[in-house]
Automatic annotation (TrEMBL):
Domain of life: Bacteria
Keywords carried by this UniProt record: Aminotransferase, Transferase
Annotated GO biological process: glycine decarboxylation via glycine cleavage system; methylation
GO MF term set: aminomethyltransferase activity; methyltransferase activity; transaminase activity
Domain GCVT N-terminal: 8-268
Name of this chain's protein: Aminomethyltransferase
Catalytic activity: N(6)-[(R)-S(8)-aminomethyldihydrolipoyl]-L-lysyl-[protein] + (6S)-5,6,7,8-tetrahydrofolate = N(6)-[(R)-dihydrolipoyl]-L-lysyl-[protein] + (6R)-5,10-methylene-5,6,7,8-tetrahydrofolate + NH4(+)
EC number of this enzyme: 2.1.2.10
Binding of substrate, residues: 201
Gene from which this protein is expressed: gcvT
Entry keyword Glycoprotein: no
Cellular component annotations (GO), alphabetically ordered: cytosol; glycine cleavage complex
Amino acid sequence: MSDVLSPLHDEHVALGAALTSFAGWQMPLRYTSDIAEHQAVRTAAGLFDLSHMGELEISGAGAAAALDHALVGDLTALALGRARYTMIVREDGGVLDDLVVYRLAEDRFLVVANASNVAVVRDALIERLAGFDATLHDASLTTALIAVQGPRAEEIVTSAAEPADVDPIRELKYYAAVNATVSGVPALVARTGYTGEDGFELFVPAEAAAELWRDLLAAGEPLGLVPAGLSARDSLRLEAGMPLYGNELDTTTTPYEAGLGRVVKLDKTGPDGEPLPFVGRAVLASRKGAQPARVLVGLRGLGKRAARHGYDVVMSTAPDSPVVGHVTSGAPSPTLGYPIALAYVTPEMCGEGRELAVDVRGRREPVVVVPVPFYRRPR
C-alpha cells in the first residue's frame, strides 16, 4: 500500500525536500540541513507541514460527557476556544495515544491524534461514544495542518491575517484557538506547538493549504522563516522534553510512569456530583501515589557521543555495570551543544545529579540525570 501524499506534497518537491515514509505518509524529513532548520526555529521561525496528524470531530449534546468517559482528562471543564493536552488509555492504563483536544463550541470538539494512531483512536472513540448523544467525523484527509513556530511566529502569522483578525490572534493565550482568515483562507488558528517555542498551528481545508503555505513562506522569509522537516521537529521537541508516542509513550506505559500524571483527572464528577468513571480509571487510581517500576528522566551526555533510542542505560562506566534502564529518545542538542536523551530508569537511579552511563555501540558513555525540559525559551 502506497503512502498518502500531503496536500503540500508538490510544495515540498518544489523546495527540494528529502522525503521519507512516516506513519503511512510521504513527509519532508529536511529541506537543507537539520541543524539549520532547528536553529531557525530557535532564533526566527520554521514552517512545518503537519497534515499527517489526525483530526477527529466529536459533536452532539453529549459530546463533552462522551469525551469525559473516553479520555483521562476533564473535557466538560474545558472552556470554549481552549485546548487541553490529554490521553486515551486502555482499561489497564496503558497509553493508546496522547492527544490535544480543542473545544470549538459547547457541543463540538476537535481531537487531534498522532498520525500513527489515527485509526486506533478513531475506533476506540467510536466504541466509547456508544450510549452518548455524540457522533464522530474523521476530517483527517480533508484537513491540512500548517505550523509556524519560533520567536517571530506571531509577527509572521498576523502579517498574513485579515486586519480584523490580527488582534484576536495576538491576544491568544497558550493552548487557545480562534477562527480567523489568513491569506484569504479560513483557518482555526491555535497557539500550540511541539517545539518549545511560541507558535501557531493552522487547521485549514486541504484544498487551500498550498496557497497558504506559499503566502506564509513569502511573508516570513524576510524575517528568517525557513521550511522545516520532521528531523528538526524531533530535535526541537526533544530539547523541550516533549514525549513522542512510540518512544516515551506506548501501551505498556501509564501516564504516571511518563511523569504525566497531571493529565489524569481522577476527580471528574457527573451532573449528579458522583465520581465519573472513565476507561482506565480503576487501574490509574491504584497507580497514583504508588512507586512506579520505572521513571522517565532527562540525561545530559558528558562526552560527545549521543545516546539513541533503545540504548541501554547502565549504572556506571565500569565494564560489568548492570543495566538500569533504556533510552527512549536521544540526539546531540543543536541549541545546548551537548548530547541529551530521555530514558526510563529504575526509581533508585532517577535522582537529579545521579551519574550513570549509556552503552553507545559497546562503549559506555558517561551521563548525568538532569531536569526536563532541557531547554526553555527566553521569556
